[in-house]
Design brief:
The complex is a heterotrimer.
Chain A: H1 6-11, H2 27-32, H3 37-61, H4 70-92, H5 94-100, H6 111-121, H7 126-156, E1 158-159, E2 162-163, H8 178-202
Antiparallel strand pairs in A: 1-2
Chain B: H1 2-13, H2 24-29, H3 34-63, H4 72-94, H5 96-102, H6 105-110, H7 113-124, H8 129-157, H9 169-184
Helix pairs in contact in B: 1-8, 3-4, 3-7, 3-8, 4-5, 4-7, 8-9
Chain C: H1 3-48, E1 54-61, E2 64-70, E3 76-86, E4 91-99, E5 104-112, E6 136-137, E7 143-145, E8 159-161, H2 167-189, H3 194-200
Parallel strand pairs in C: 7-8
Antiparallel strand pairs in C: 1-2, 2-3, 3-4, 4-5, 5-6
Classes of the chains: A mainly alpha, B mainly alpha, C alpha+beta.
Chain lengths: ~200, ~190, ~200
């Protein structure tokens, strides 16, 4: 397995195996919380926290877990870190916790996290698993930020809450509503596929 | 009256797929044929109704009386996972034809965020037992409705000339967006 | 160790560890979370019943809680009513304040809503909606002005403004306020708060 260099292991999360655009994982939070950049960022950071710590724990105790009960064990570990993230947000950042609402607990069923444990952390060393988790998290955050930037700029005329569009701009309210999420992500996926096809053709 | 409003708002207004973005994976994955979409929808509705009842019982008889609210996430996810297993074994024993129809979809449901969200939402909104069950059934039917409509459109879409890059998930998401737009029309129907 | 014993051992120890860990986290954050919730309510009470020094919950039922706001001498300044009702998308939770004799609405604030951004969500906006609720006569049920008036002076004392393009959201706020006012008045004549006021004096 360790044929990739450390750098490649880290960078694959950004493009080649980007969770959102290439693997289509974690669609629920991707669509639901990207109506404003601050929500997208908070969600991305919470997910990153859970992913990194779950990978750390799973890769360190992987030899102890019998394969028949591995999924159940992973879920308990993930749910533990999700609860911590959820309580932390509720205690120290109540407005964000209120905005994200039940989508923070939903990180438990985010396929990216369970998927990385099953596909990577259970087979690799602690160091590599951490690098993988960091890369994937950053790739996920990047995806959330791109999507929420498009939706916030077009839907509110703001970027991270700062007005960027002039007075002439009439916000496209549809972009912050559910249809806007589906359509923007659909177009972005097509764009990602098109870029991938073009680069492949050139090679 | 409020119960009826809750039921219809779960199907049409706060549709799990088109409003809360839940269960997108099966929504995109199992929506190629109308009959498999129907089976998936029914399996989800079935598990949702049971989950609603069980999660309510756990929340009100164990978590709240003993002030274990911080165990909510862990206990809900474990209950759902084991419940799906039990339902699978139960259906296989009781009704083989039903198992044949729903069988392969049941394991997929464990990882379906819609079920987990249902348990959380019912706890968050403080629904009583009947409201929770009605909410569960309504949400399940809403999911079924969305996935069947999607399958119907995708069966037609196979014959259409879609740009290469949009094929698959891209065009499905855009179609879902247009459906969500249509469903926005139901908002405000219930007063 | 055979396999099933190991399976049980691993699952139990993971479960116990996570349970123990979470109970610590739960204990550490519990107070703060409760405090945040309380702070939100208290800030809202202060906003709708100006001058409140201390507040007390007088009554509670599903979708309706009533608080009494008192000044530093313990005199009842007014009531703060925390209520929710069905809006355009989902429930709207709001709080409004009245004077002690229940004849005037002092102010209104929206605590939680999921209305359409840019349209129904304007109910949280002071300029376009909330300012038309300040200091209204509520001895009779309030009514909605449609089409909307341009400035607060154009409205009669028991009228509030509609948001253009979001009649349902405006109506639902109005209904929630009217219904809970009616309920509050009935509770008051039934004498549910009599003890409280005596204590206050």
């Amino acid at each position: 397995m360790p044929t990739k260099s450390i750098g490649e292991e880290f960078l694959k999360g950004f493009w080649k195996e980007n969770p959102i655009f290439r693997q289509l994982l974690g669609m629920c939070p991707t669509l639901a919380v990207t109506n404003a950049m601050i929500n997208g960022l908070a969600m991305g950071l919470a997910t990153a926290f859970v992913l990194i710590f779950s990978s750390l724990v799973v890769s360190s105790i992987k030899k102890l877990i019998p394969s028949q009960v591995r999924i159940a064990t992973y879920i308990v570990i993930i749910a533990t870190f999700v609860t911590i993230a959820d309580r932390f947000l509720a205690a120290f950042f109540p407005p964000i916790s209120k905005n994200l609402g039940p989508y923070v607990p939903l990180i438990v069923v985010n396929c990216i996290i369970l998927g990385r444990q099953e596909a990577f952390s259970s087979k690799n060393t602690v160091g590599r698993s951490l690098i993988d988790a960091f890369g994937m998290s950053l790739g996920f955050i990047l995806g959330l930020l791109i999507l929420s930037a498009i939706r916030e700029i077009l839907g509110f005329g703001t970027f991270f809450g700062f007005q960027v569009m002039g007075q002439w701009f009439k916000p496209w309210i549809i972009m912050i509503l559910p249809p806007g999420a589906f359509i923007t992500l659909g177009i972005l996926l097509a764009l990602a596929l098109q870029i991938e096809r073009k680069t492949k053709a050139r090679r | 009256m409020e119960i009826i409003a809750l039921f219809f708002s779960a199907i049409l207004i706060n549709n799990f797929v088109l409003h809360y973005f839940l269960g997108i994976c099966p929504f995109l994955g199992v929506s190629k044929k109308i009959d498999s979409a129907l089976s998936m929808g029914l399996a989800v509705t079935f598990v949702m109704s049971i989950t609603a009842a069980v999660s309510w019982a756990i929340n009100h008889w164990i978590l709240i009386p003993y002030q274990l609210d911080y165990l909510q996430i862990v206990s809900f996810i474990l209950v759902i996972a084991s419940l799906v297993q039990l339902v699978e074994m139960f259906i296989r024993k009781i009704s083989p034809p039903l198992y044949q129809a729903l069988g392969i979809y049941l394991p997929l449901i464990t990882t379906n965020c819609a079920i987990f969200f249902l348990a959380l939402m019912a706890a968050l909104k403080n629904y009583n037992f009947i409201e929770t069950v009605i909410f569960g059934i309504g949400s399940g039917l809403g999911f079924t409705l969305a996935i069947i409509l999607m399958a119907g459109i995708r069966e037609q879409l196979d014959l259409a000339d879609v740009p290469e890059a949009l094929k698959g998930a891209g065009i499905s998401l855009i179609v879902a967006g247009i459906m969500a737009l249509a469903f926005l029309g139901f908002s405000g129907m219930i007063k | 160790m055979n396999l099933s014993a190991r399976m049980i051992a691993v699952l139990t120890s993971v479960g116990l560890l996570s349970g123990g860990f979470l109970s610590t986290v739960g204990l550490l954050t519990k107070e703060r979370i409760a405090l945040n919730k309380q702070k939100e309510i208290e800030e809202a009470i202060l906003a709708v019943v100006p001058g409140t020094e201390s507040s007390q919950k007088l009554y509670e039922e599903k979708d309706l809680s009533i608080y009494g706001g008192k000044d530093e001498d313990g005199n009842l300044l007014g009531f703060a009513i925390h209520a929710s009702g069905v809006g355009f998308q989902d429930k709207i939770t709001l709080m409004f304040g009245t004077n002690a004799s229940l004849t005037r609405i002092t102010n209104l604030t929206i605590l939680d809503q999921k209305e359409t951004p840019g349209l129904g969500a304007k109910i949280t906006d002071r300029e376009s909606f909330l300012k038309y609720w300040e200091n209204k006569d509520c001895s009779q049920p309030l009514s909605l002005r449609k089409p909307p008036a341009i400035s607060p002076e154009d409205l009669s004392s028991s009228e509030v403004n509609t948001i253009t393009g979001a009649t349902i959201s405006s109506e639902s706020v109005l209904n929630t306020v009217n219904l809970s006012l009616e309920r509050l008045k009935r509770l008051k004549t039934e004498g549910k708060f009599a003890i409280e006021e005596r204590n206050a004096n």
